[in-house]
Amino acid sequence: MTPIALYLLMFVASLAALLWASDRFVDAAEKIGLSLGISPFIIGVTIIAFGTSLPELASSIAAVFVGESEIVVGNVVGSNITNILLVLGLVAIVSKSVKLNFRVMDIDIPLLVGSAFLLWFILQDQKVSVIEALLLLVGLVIFLINTFKGEDNEEKSERTKADWKQYVFLVLGAGLVYLGATYTIVAIQQISTILQISSEVIALSLVALGTSLPEVVVSVTAAAKKKSAIAVGNVLGSNIFNTYAVMGIPALMGDLKIPDNILTFSLPFMVAITVLFGIICVSNKISRWEGVMLVLFYCYFFIELVKEVM
Questions:
Q1: pLDDT, tens digit, for every residue of 183-209?
Q2: Is 251 exposed, middle or buried (0-12, 13-18, 19+ CB in 10 A)?
Q3: How many domains does the chain have?
Q4: pLDDT at residue number 157
Q5: d(CA 6, CA 144)
Q6: Taking phi first (over 0 means left), then psi (-120 to 50 degrees means alpha), and beta for anything else, what does residue 142 get?
Q7: Owning domain of residue 67
């Protein structure tokens, strides 16, 4: 078997495991959360969003340790763009129309947009100091505090009982999501290397897409099950977690390299589409045509990355 065929097989197997594990994880997380009296939206921005963001954090920490720290910012910026444009776009397309029956504009959208502008400001000198890294982590704490404060205004769901099996599925599901995403990334990176694709494109697109696969799968699965609160909450929580934790924690472990092309195109693009996301949410719904528009923006982003290295 040739190397390219081997890594293609690894990609398919890892993705299949990711699909199955994500389905188990969504069901277990929702049942446990509802049994604790937590609203579906809060479940989305905490348990599910943070659980599926583990690949971004793990791969970013590993990148610092192996001396490839430029992957960190590429992973964060690329993943945030992928989450909003591809994940949210696919969710809207699958759901036909996503109804936002919760007040995301009061707390979560301002924090999301604020985190994007904060990251843009911090990266302007092409470095992240220890103080700036700690500031990012403080931002994460503020987000969590405001999220749980806002739960008092959310519509409560009827409590259900969760047995021990749900906790087992939650842990095993999260572990398999992480392993499936990790080996999917390995396969994508090896395929890209064999095909001699630039590392900058890999970091901003394929690595970001690979680490965002849990968000793609979990959110689309949730949308297909008419659980749009979890799907949208997943995008909000994942992006805020990426900006604050996935950027902040690795920055405390070593110096981060900030490539020029990220400052000139990818980072401003991320800020712009984050603002666009907030504008879309003003109407308290996301239509199918808006979902198509978001996916088309993602295609444009990907094409521009390819053009940069050609």
A1: 877 777 787 788 787 656 776 877 788
A2: buried
A3: 1
A4: 53
A5: 42
A6: alpha
A7: 40-155+195-309
CATH of the domain at 141: 1.20.1420.30
Output the pTM of the full model.
0.78
Q: Which of 4-8, 160-164, 293-297 has the highest mean pLDDT?
A: 293-297
Q: Which two tokens stand for residue 197?
A: 């694709």
Residues 6 or more apart in contact with residue 178 via CB below 8 angstroms: 54, 55, 58
Q: What is the mean pLDDT of the chain?
A: 82
Alpha-carbon distance of 82 to 85, in angstroms, equals: 5
- 48 with 229: CB under 8 angstroms? no
d(CA 130, CA 60): 17
Instruction: Kindly state whether residue 15 falls inside one of the protein's structural domains.
Output: no
Helix axes 3-35, 164-194, angle to 10 degrees: 150
Whether residue 33 lies inside any domain: the answer is: no
Is 130 domain-assigned?
yes
Specify the 3-state DSSP secondary structure of 41.
helix
Q: Which amino acid is at 259?
A: P
82 in a structural domain:
yes
